[in-house]
Amino acid sequence: MITIQMRYFAFVREQLGTSKETIELANGSTVGQALDLVLARSPRLLNAQSAMMVMVNQSYQPREHVLADGDEVAIIPPVSGEASRSVSL
Amino acid sequence: MTEDVIDPRDVEALVVDDAAGALVTFAGTVRDHARGKSVTALEYEAYPPAAEKMLEQIGAEILERWGLRNVAIAHRYGLLQVGETSVVIAVSSAHRDAAFDACRYAIERIKVLVPIWKREVYEDGAVWIGSEGEYQVETGRVAAEDVPAGQS
């Protein structure tokens, strides 16, 4: 198992009722799996899943990025109302 | 990233350069209206270390792409009142075209990439900008017809 420090902000923080928590995941888990696990707690967050970006240790990472023990994973809801988030990083 | 008042002149002073023929400063300020409502205040929530890292990245990107002399960017977070400055971008360059273009590009990048969230506070509620169109119509907080999907 690996231990991940999750960080939540703005709308995500309000929906989950907390700004941070520690979760445990199986070795080899990805950003996408961590996101699925957390967003599944709120139907409204699940609906907005495609609009979410994720930072691992303060850098944007794609869904398939593999997490390591001790990583800080932040769920980043849209920052300014962009209708689409086709962003080149 | 700061929780204190930002004076655009202070940010501008950081980029002054004898080899520069142009100095462009953009200041974003809190507007008193949005989507047909009166805005009484704006709350900015930030992920400060990550926001600073992204601002540095954007600064480095425009410095290189437009061959600027200097770049300085300041962003405030916390509760801001109408008229207060939320963000300042100052760039200096040999010629004006590069300074204007770089400044414009920087604010657009900031609005997409930097983890800072804006919550508009109205007399009768509040809404997180960016999260309103797709999924934030809070019962009793803001009416669905007031938040067209995708509007920023």
Describe the structure.
The complex is a heterodimer of chains A (about 90) and B (about 150). Chain A has about 90 residues and is of the alpha+beta class. Chain A is built from 3 helices and 5 strands, in the order βαβααβββ. A 5-stranded mixed β-sheet of chain A has the order 2-1-5-3-4. The relative contact order of chain A is 0.26. Chain B is α+β, with helices and mostly antiparallel strands and about 150 residues long. In chain B, a hairpin with a 2-residue loop joins strand 2 and strand 3. Chain B is elongated and about 50 Å long. The C terminus of chain B is likely disordered. At the A-B interface, helix 1, helix 3 and strand 4 of A face helix 2, helix 3, strand 7 and helix 4 of B.
Gist?
The complex is a heterodimer of chains A (about 90) and B (about 150). With about 90 residues, chain A is an alpha+beta fold. Chain A has helices at about 10-15, 30-40, 45; strands spanning about 1-10, 20-25, 55, 60, 70-75.
